[in-house]
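Human:
I keep going back and forth on a fold encoding question. Comparing notes only helps if you start from a blank page. Show me how you would write down a chain together with its backbone fold. Write it directly below this note and I will take it from there.

Assistant:
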Amino acid sequence: MSVESQPKVLLHICCGPCATYPLPSLRDDGFEVIGYYYNPNIHPYTEYLKRRESLEKYAEAVQLKLILDPDYDAVKYFQQISYRETQRCRFCYQMRLEKAAHIAARGKFDYFTSTLLVSTYQNHNLIKETGQAMGEKYGVPFLYRDFREGFKQTVQLSKDMGLYRQQYCGCLYSELERYADRDVDKVKETGK
């Protein structure tokens, strides 16, 4: 298959490690893949930068073209989820996948998808539903792939490549959920 006839897919990427399985999988299936980094949900800003730098390192190693969206609009993210924190993932997926669909339409991509689909911690049905809705809105099909089978592989590949690997999804709430239980357990153990 020549490069000219390869269907183009815009791959929304949340971090370098999460791209290590979906990217080669899509390439093996004959897609030309362009990466897209847009994640105003990631907090704090220093975490956002670490993840972006890790992705840039990975992209350079595997010759992945990247679109690095300069729009880090944390205020918009918090406005989207305020008073709806229990449904925050729905609004977070929508915000990021809508922007990806918009970029895919502007760039005349054949499809768009997301590395969110590699995580065993994400709501795949909601991602699929949101991606399809955004695809219909912008006229670019959402390419759903269940990449979870490669989740463990992403952990090992990121270690092998020396990529920064985060310990929480990205948002302030997921960070709190990740570490708050440890603090509670510590208080129980020490009484402080």
About this structure: The chain has eight helices and four strands.
